[in-house]
């Protein structure tokens, strides 16, 4: 395939190099200036991009190396939103994140966002490779942000401004040359299991209404995207220090996800039993919707049996054409700066594993 996503693709984030971790601490302690830290980030991103090219990836990212979080950094950079310290972190299975969050304190908009400059740097070093950029889905602000009710007394006004902000963001990235943009989204996972759906109901939310809201926000946000821009969405069940937040197959939201979203591609987790089976793929009703099967785990270093992965790809092809399928890790390797519990060499072995299996299947 010559257009993103590729038969062998990846979600986007990579483990932070030790030099970069040290530099971020030095900046925090006042031992480095913001300019000095950015210079180190530039150097490490150049190395990372070259490594991605070396192992054989066709799309390259900046690894999210400038970010602490996969979502809060972007959301906190929107006009009307801010990054802040919360009382408690996000709870994952057996571990809790740092106590950070995003709150909405004014009318939402998209202005001079630092991520645009981050993309410009990636674009400048991508060369003949496709520069892929990742940002959180607009649904993440709905799902995660604390909203000042005096600013937005009702959700409809918030949603309208959020959609407008994302439309401006997409245009800003496009104007700088971005043709491969990915929306990362864990909000859908709250709709998957009976346990999580019950929690929504206890909080006064209707899962059936929520799935329609999430679809509307995505579709309206990307409605004006240019024809030559590929917008994908990665649906995730949580990824922090090799653990997760939720389980459940796609069944409860499958008709909307696979039959009602207007994204070009979907990156889907299918690396273990928490993700359910492939049956929900039967709701795909477009021949131009590409499905990227996340069958290789990014959480641990052991390599999967390639024959079992090929068998699972064949099983998925019972529900959607093999021509519409691709392969990737189920998530990034470092959704936060802490990273998953594997080494950098294991990380690259995983990427090579994806590429080799994809070559065997689609050659």
Automatic annotation (TrEMBL):
Q: Which domain of life is it from?
A: Bacteria
Q: Which SUPFAM superfamilies match?
A: UROD/MetE-like (SSF51726)
| Molecular function (Gene Ontology), one example | zinc ion binding
Please provide the record's keywords in A-Z order: Methyltransferase, Transferase
Q: What is its EC number?
A: 2.1.1.14
Q: Where is the Cobalamin-independent methionine synthase MetE C-terminal/archaeal domain?
A: 10-337
First-tier enzyme category under EC: transferase
UniProt record, GO biological process: methionine biosynthetic process; methylation
Q: Does the keyword Transferase apply?
A: yes
Record has Membrane as a keyword: no
Q: Name one Pfam family in it.
A: Meth_synt_2
Which PANTHER family does the record cross-reference, listed alphabetically?
Answer: METHIONINE SYNTHASE
What protein am I looking at? Answer: 5-methyltetrahydropteroyltriglutamate--homocysteine S-methyltransferase
Q: What is the lineage of its organism?
A: Bacteria, Bacillati, Bacillota, Bacilli, Bacillales
